[in-house]
Design goal:
By secondary structure, the protein is an alpha/beta fold. The protein contains 14 helices and twelve strands. Strands 2-1-5-6-7 form a five-stranded parallel beta sheet, with helices on both faces. The protein has a five-stranded mixed beta sheet with strand order 9-8-10-12-11, sandwiched between helices. Strands 3-4 form a two-stranded antiparallel ribbon. The termini are close together.
Length: 424
């Protein structure tokens, strides 16, 4: 069981945060600004496209594919957005016997769809820039006449290969973390499967959105990315480690998810991208499984969870349960994320709203505001089986800003849950 008093101990959180995940998330806004500036310097701002590509294919792994899913949610049906996942993996021999073994991702391979051609755009995005599979994919796309954009660290093999296939090279912005001899967590249990930088999503997503905004794939306002950086800064202040749990929404969410099997539900494509991201972060940062899905389909997909052993069958207040010998039983916890745009100029919805920095609001269980039929049915399903349901809604009119609100909240919650559980 999680000792939630640890969430109010900033020193304990700092000791547990060996890879500085909280600091990396706090710097997400700065990374967006840097990536936006470097993308403009690389030539994105000077592009004069003749029209939208038929399809945008985004290749990578980890957060690069999450960025592709977010682009698909923001683009809607205007342009086909296809994430390209790795299709195979190969052994990569060591170049130096004394060196650490190559990371598993160095041997991943990708395959270009058979229909891809001169009307399509391939975006290759990598935080390491050393995947030979991505270099081969770019060469495939060049042979077929695709337009190519490569996001990778400057000087990496992938960035160098971009010049050979006449791709537009965009820089990947790494985290700016101090190197002050902080304590290490020790040797990794799986050294070839290192944890991903928790804020890498924004280093992949920013150049991708800057590019697709210029190409007309998305209909974002011209200053949407700059404003997103400000929202991420505000979320970092709101969710900072020294903020008490009762004022820190991320700590509160982490405490609610402790000792549960989370069902992450979403209404709308933006919230759908956020719950998919949250499920991945809970696995990566907190070591917790979670099931994610989008209304209305998720209600039929997860119905069996409510009628099974994790539903209302196990009573945490069972008088006869041995609280010393028996561990606390696991229970379901539904988290429903929604994007409910407020009218322009309304509080919390526009640039000058009174709740501009408030972030996504927790919706009370007895809220009588309008809900879609799917959301109302989700509440009835949870209530009928005595399963707690927590709902957060973002009222920002811009979908990217709503996404930033929801992702920032859940990213911090996943890290807090992992850190507190590690110290329990």
């Amino acid at each position: 069981m999680l000792d939630d008093t640890l969430l109010d101990d900033p020193a304990a959180l700092q000791r547990a945060d060996h890879d500085r995940a909280l600091l990396a998330l706090a710097g997400a806004g700065a990374r967006v600004r840097t990536a936006l500036r470097l993308a403009d310097a690389a030539g994105v701002d000077r592009l004069r496209p003749d029209g939208r590509p038929r399809a945008v294919l985004v290749a990578g792994h980890g957060s690069a594919l999450t960025a592709a899913g977010i682009l698909a949610a923001l683009a809607g049906t205007a342009t086909l957005v296809t994430p390209l996942e790795p299709t195979d993996a190969a052994y990569v021999p060591r170049t130096d016997r004394a060196a650490a073994p190559p990371v598993f991702t160095a041997g991943l391979a990708w395959q270009l769809p058979g229909w891809a051609g001169p009307l399509d755009l391939l975006v290759v995005s990598s935080a390491a820039g050393g995947e030979q599979g991505l270099i081969s994919l770019a060469e495939q796309a060049y042979a077929r006449g695709c337009a190519i954009v490569v996001t990778a660290p400057a000087g990496s093999p992938l960035a160098e290969a971009a010049l050979q296939v006449r791709a537009l090279p965009l820089p990947y912005v790494p985290p700016n973390l101090p190197d002050d001899g902080a304590p290490s967590s020790g040797a990794a249990a799986e050294p070839d499967l290192p944890a991903e930088d928790p804020a890498a999503l924004w280093a992949h997503l920013t150049p991708l959105l800057a590019l697709t905004q210029k190409l007309g794939v998305t209909q974002l306002p011209y200053d949407a990315l700059a404003a997103t950086a400000d929202l991420l800064d505000a979320s970092a202040v709101r969710c900072r480690p020294d903020a008490a749990a009762y004022t820190n929404p991320a700590k509160g969410l982490a405490a609610r998810l402790a000792g549960t099997v989370p069902l992450l539900w979403a209404e709308g494509p933006v919230a759908g991208a956020a719950v998919t991201r949250f499920a991945a972060q809970l696995a990566e940062r907190a070591g917790r499984p979670a099931l994610a899905g989008q209304l209305p389909q998720v209600l039929t997909a997860h119905r069996g969870m409510f009628t099974g052993q994790l539903g209302a069958g196990a009573d945490p207040d069972d008088f006869f349960r041995d609280r010393v010998e028996e561990p606390d039983p696991l229970h379901l916890q539904v988290l429903l994320l929604r994007h409910v745009p407020a009218p322009a100029g309304a509080a919390g919805g526009g640039a000058g709203g009174a709740e501009e920095d408030a972030g996504p609001a927790e919706v009370p269980a007895d809220d009588e505001g309008p809900r879609s039929f799917g959301a109302a049915r989700a509440h009835r399903l949870a209530e009928a089986h005595d399963v707690r349901i927590t709902e957060y809604a973002s009222a920002r009119p811009d979908p990217l800003h709503a996404l930033a609100d929801l992702v920032a909240l859940t990213d911090f919650a996943a890290v807090y849950l992992g850190l507190a559980a590690a110290q329990s």
